[in-house]
Structures are given as C-alpha cells and as structure tokens.
Design goal:
With 77 residues, the protein is mostly helical. The chain has helices at 2-14, 24-31, 37-76.
Length: 77
C-alpha cells in the first residue's frame, strides 16, 4: 500500500506540467509589455501563493489520518 502511494506521488511530481495562472486582466496588461519578465514574475508569484492552501489541507488530512490510525490501534488492544 505504501509503495503504491509513493509511486503515485513520484509520478505526479515527475509529470507536472507548467501552469499559466494569470487572470485575464493581468494577462492583458502584462502581454503589452515587452520582454515578458514581469509576466513571468507575476505568474511565478501566483503559483507560489497557490501552494500554501494545498499544504494546509494536506497537513489537516494527514493529522486526521494519523489520529484515526492511532484510535484504531488502541481499539485493537
């Protein structure tokens, strides 16, 4: 079971595709600028900010999993 989960997580990390995370208004303003360095910076910032909600939900999910597993082990004893 652990091997399957590790394998799936590894595949998801390897096969990650780049994402364009700009809203329509930001894209319109930044596309008019030459060079595109500001657009890349804004896009990276948006993707960076998107990571934290997923980490929080993952941490809460892990805490629930751990507490249920501990309760199940105590019930067996």
């Amino acid at each position: 079971m652990k091997f399957k989960l590790l394998f799936v997580l590894l595949i998801l990390l390897i096969v990650a595709l780049p994402a364009e995370a700009q809203c329509a208004m930001c894209r319109a303003v930044l596309e008019s600028e030459e060079g595109g360095q500001a657009a890349k910076g804004i896009n990276n910032g948006i993707v960076y900010l998107m990571i934290f909600p997923y980490l929080l939900i993952g941490g809460i999910g892990y805490a629930i999993y751990r507490s249920r597993k501990k309760a199940r082990e105590e019930k067996k004893l």
